[in-house]
Amino acid sequence: MAMPLGFLSTTFSATGTPSLLKSPSLSVQAVSFNAAKLRTSVTYATASSEPATDTKKRAPRGFSKPRPVSPEMRDFLGGRTEIPRTEVLKVIWAHIKQNGLQDPNNKRVIVCDEKLKKIFGEKDQVGFLEIAGLISPHFKKVEN
Predict the structure, then answer these.
(1) Do 141 and 70 meet the contact criterion of CB atoms below 8 Å apart?
(2) pLDDT for position 30
């Protein structure tokens, strides 16, 4: 017996089979209660209690994979020849924060010092969203 619940557009059914029962990785419990002589069924889904399969730690891929860098970036990084993009961004932001290079009126704008100008193409200031694109040319492609 299906019955709409007023302002809710969902219809609850005490006899229907929820689509969650078809999923093998979920365990489903049905709880029924009687409120104002109205019998409804509420279904709760929980994660499987089976232990996770043994997974090995994956080798870094994409942005987290160390790549060779250009001589300009190597000078900025203090001699490191291979580094992931994520680490480069962390080093750049640490340099920006340590030297107070954010525009005080608009923190989204970075005022470049001489070190940053070398890796950002001699720009006087850059937006924080531009940084990832400006460091891209400093990473050499690696053939597998």
Answers:
(1) no
(2) 60
Longest dimension (CA), the chain: 77
Alpha carbon distance 67, 58 (integer Å): 17
Query: What is the C-alpha to C-alpha distance for residues 72 and 70, in angstroms, rounded to an integer?
Result: 5
> Is pTM, for the whole model, over 0.85?
no
Grouping H, G, I as helix, E, B as strand and the rest as coil, residue 61 is: coil
Distance (Å) of CA 9 to CA 1, 4, 31, 85, 140: 16, 7, 20, 48, 55
Token duo for residue 91:
């080093």
Domains of the chain with bracketed CATH: 63-138 (1.10.245.10)
Residue 9's pLDDT is 47
List, for residues 46-62, the tens digit of each pLDDT value.
676 666 677 788 877 77
